[in-house]
Amino acid sequence: MSTESDHAKTANGTMEFRAGTPGRGGGIPLFAPPPVDQIAVEERAASLAKRSIKKAAKVAGLKLAIRMMDLTTLEGKDTAGKVRQLCRKALTPLDSDPSLGPCAAICVYPNFVAIAKEALAGSTVKVASVATAFPSGQSPLSIKLDDTKRAVDFGADEIDMVIDRGAMLAGDYAKVFDEIAATKEACRHAHLKVILETGELGTYDVVRKASDLAIAAGADFIKTSTGKVQPAATPPVTLVMLEAIRDHYYATGRKIGMKPAGGVRTAKQSLHYLVLVKETLGDAWLTPDLFRFGASALLNDVLMQLEKERTGVYQASEDFSKD
Amino acid sequence: MSTQELSRTKSAIDKSTASLALEFGHAWDYAPAPEAKDHVRIQPRYDLFVGGRWTAPKSGKYFLTTSPSTEESLAEVAEASAEDVDLAVKAARTAYEKYWAKMRPAERAKYIFRIARAIQEKARELAIVESMDGGKPIKESRDVDIPLAAAHFFYHAGWADKLDYAFHGRKVRPLGVAGQIIPWNFPLLMAAWKIAPALACGNTVVLKPAETTPLTALLLAHIIEEAELPPGVVNIVTGAGPTGAALVAHPDVNKIAFTGSTEVGKKIQKAIAGSRKRLTLELGGKAANVIFGDAPLDQAVEGIVNGIYFNQGHVCCAGSRLLVEESVHDVVVKKLKDRLQNLRLGDPLDKNTDVGAINSKMQLEKIKELVAAGEHEGATRYSAPCALPDKGYWFPPTFFTGAAQASRIAREEIFGPVLTVMTFRTPDEAVEKANNTMYGLSAGIWTDKGAKIFWMAGKLKAGVIWGNTYNKFDPTSPFGGYKESGFGREGGRHGLSAYVEVV
Q: Is the ipTM of this complex over 0.85?
């Protein structure tokens, strides 16, 4: 049993945001998301992966995927030069075909928000910044909120936060909920994407729980992964999260967005994710406003497939800019 | 949002009657993805496969087999008369005495393995022909029917030389000539279910495929020919009811195995009463698919779809009665409605087709008649809003809510893509309603509690019970019914006893 003093010991300032009774498993009374059957949900995701997407459907799907992409660089070795190059790529994914793109957003660390903002000025491409002590989230809440506020001050249009997976697995749902709610407040006008880091959550049941918590706490988007943990996005995990979004829509009419991130590397994979969205949530979600891919390597493979469809032959990978 | 609101959200989902429907339109359509069929060779005419030879029927008669999705004729097929059946049984008897019963079991296994491998090698062709002749979606014939047919031959080939260990140390001997009559819903798979155990146990076979779907059994005859089985070990006689009746009535048949309607099953049982023929019957069903409130509902909805719309509901073990706990009835129905919008009905050869054509005009009429009865009895009908092709036999995925336990749609086997949804309040009531049928072939149980699955499985009078899944088949697992769903088991060690005498 957790007690008040256990929580005081964490000394991370979350107490003031607590909505429910703190405690392991007893965090939020009556909070009982539906169970998820692992075998059946994996089977469903696999069956949707068998949809055959050819010709016009393939081209339309891949063009849509480009417009849904959050082109991402999140490395210790990121520089202003690298970020500017990536912005350029997001604006014009393929010089020879200006009808493609632009991508939905650039996703960077807070230090590069201002640079990206400048490089993308006048365009529709958003700047997303990770925040809240990304990727582990293992810092006091005050630092996470400060991280968020600064990123917004730098000009971020979107904030990609991480949840406290430790608290999630320990059953301290109130803490997870409160931190998301507080971050949402700190975002002000910026859109909030909540990264569940599903690769650390262990079961689909916990993924579903975390999805429901994040949505209830104010997430505009829920996102699978930081890209720093394996496995990152998978089709069944995405399906579970889409189902949480669907139930929330049924109950409230509010549309939450979805972002699989990490592990989506090929054009074919991206089409399968679009199939999942199309057949789980329908037409309304087939837009960059409600579905994004967090990816870096994906774009060039999509471009290569589109060029193949246009010309009938595969180009060398060297024919596409590697930003 | 506060935690109180959160819990309210949860209960709102459960009780929601709001009209927030999702839209599954044309924002991003799939292009047609037809499976190429140009390499598939269907002969203009098929004779009978008797004694290892293709022989013209003594009757001189042929009938047409057509594609239910296009109404085009695919081939002429021989109609076996009583005389032809007699020749086939004689060939099987000769093969039994001369070759098959004398052969070392390990040698028998080699032939059966050969058949299994050839089915795998020709899987694509078999799948295409199955979909053309029967109307089922290519994704099902490709991913279910054909691989399972091969698996049944592989599995039983393995038993051929181990029969001495299958019956608690007791020895067995084959029965002799087995007469086997199979239905049109899984043409090749049912042929495999019948032929593989019979051969493994040392019997020879006369098989009669259904008259609407004879083609894959005839392709299997070609495979058997190429596998160089001794002549007469497997004989394929095509024809309709009278051909089957001649086979049942033949005095030199030792065993009849029938899969089909309860009505015909009863006739067969009458016909062979008093004879020494052994009999197994796998007949109709009206299975309960039971969904408890604590079930993983999104996956349960997939289970409902797989239970009743798989193979257009032409499945004897289809989950055609949905018993859903009243507390989650509305949310399950809402989810099911949205799910139905995503079922793609159309060309069976399109790789994205989920629901194919109804197998025959006659079956379509039967479905329509029962659906009309359901409407007349006051149940509420919902059909998927999909366009039906102009040619061929089609019925949209449909379900009824508010049906009475006593109504025809809750009692009679529809054998089509039509589900009857009813509610229960307690587990005991669920058991009572699930068992309240003349059938007892299969059932499904959906709950997050393992103990409840086991508790309920022990109380259901059904031969096959699935927990948190539906319509899963495996050659190692015995399949068969209670009550008017028949007797005898197919598959697994239990299935062997239908083809041997324990000595």
A: yes
